[in-house]
Amino acid sequence: MKFKVSHTFPVSRTYYEENVFFDDDINELINEAVKIGHKTPQEVKEDDEIKYYKNLIRPQFELPAVMRKALKGKGVGYYEHTTYFKKENRVEWRIESEFFPDKITGQGEIKFVEVGDNKTDRVVTGEMHAKFFGVGKMIEKMLVDNITKSYNTIAEVTHTWLKENTEAKS
């Protein structure tokens, strides 16, 4: 199931990339807001072209009964693979289920687009797949709805953080 989420922020693309996207303080606030219960770094690589990281994520949310049944009580955990292409102003992301890597996957892209003086669009596109007989599409919809809601929450947190932390710095 495909999705697209876009938000505009009142800072330049360069400022957003350098001071917001990888900022530890705002990412901690974001993780709390979207209920990332546990985030365990697995791997980090960086050179002049890319920044790659892999995290194990265990979100805190109640699953619908049909999903709990499909997951056979194993809970929700996933590996997040993220590659930031420094010169291209974009991120490629891929996720795979911790317990069902062949059944729940997703991939997509985040682009940072300057749309005017001190205005940047963060455009997130992606596609989620859940291969469970009879309930796969329902799980995909729940995942996409959750991702969309999370990015809307992230935008709210980011706007608040920017108001509190920028004074014509961009």
Short description:
With 170 residues, the chain is an alpha+beta fold.
Keywords:
4 helices; 170 residues; Alpha-D-Glucose-1,6-Bisphosphate, Chain A, domain 4; alpha+beta; 32% helix
Layout: helices, strands, pairs:
Elements: E1 2-9, H1 13-21, H2 24-33, E2 36-46, E3 50-59, H3 65-70, E4 78-85, E5 90-97, E6 104-116, E7 119-130, H4 136-165
Antiparallel strand pairs: 1-7, 2-3, 3-4, 4-5, 5-6, 6-7
Helix pairs in contact: 2-4
Mean pLDDT: 90
DSSP strand count: 7
- Neighbour order of strands in the largest sheet: 1-7-6-5-4-3-2
Q: What's the SSE pattern?
A: EHHEEHEEEEH
Q: How many discrete structural domains? A: 1
Report low-confidence residues grouped into runs of 5 or more.
none
CATH topology: Alpha-D-Glucose-1,6-Bisphosphate, Chain A, domain 4
Q: Tell me the number of helical segments per DSSP (H or I, 4 or more residues long).
A: 4
Name the CATH superfamily assignment.
START domain
The radius of gyration is: 17 Å
Roughly what fraction of the amino acids lie in strands?
35-45%
* Class per helix and strand makeup: alpha+beta
Report the helical percentage: 25-40%
CATH class: Alpha Beta
Any idea what the CATH architecture is?
2-Layer Sandwich
Biggest β-sheet description: 7 strands, antiparallel
